[in-house]
Specification:
Helices cover 41% and strands 17% of the residues. 6% of the residues are buried. The protein is α+β, with helices and mostly antiparallel strands. The chain has a two-stranded parallel sheet.
């Protein structure tokens, strides 16, 4: 994450990509997404930036609605309200 945090701070858009696993994100993407909440803890004078985001997800069949609901619930506090 030490390599990701500086790039994340400078990025205008965050692209999240994952296959659909059991109607949600992969464990690897969940972990990375959770760690983005900690970016502000690296520097007490830094606030999480407001970022645009996009979710790229591939799967066969149904199940995207649950994943999209989860994504929308996560981006509200992380990308829209952290300014």
């Amino acid at each position: 994450m030490e390599k990701i945090y500086p790039v994340y701070r400078e990025a205008d858009v965050v692209a999240l990509a994952t296959p659909l696993y059991y109607w949600s994100f992969s464990g690897q993407l969940r972990t990375a997404f959770d760690r983005l909440f900690a970016v502000a803890e690296c520097d007490p004078n830094y606030r999480n930036p407001k970022k645009e985001s996009v979710l790229l997800m591939a799967a066969e069949g149904h199940g995207f609605n649950d994943a999209l609901s989860y994504y929308k619930s996560l981006i509200t506090p992380l990308f829209q309200l952290c300014r």
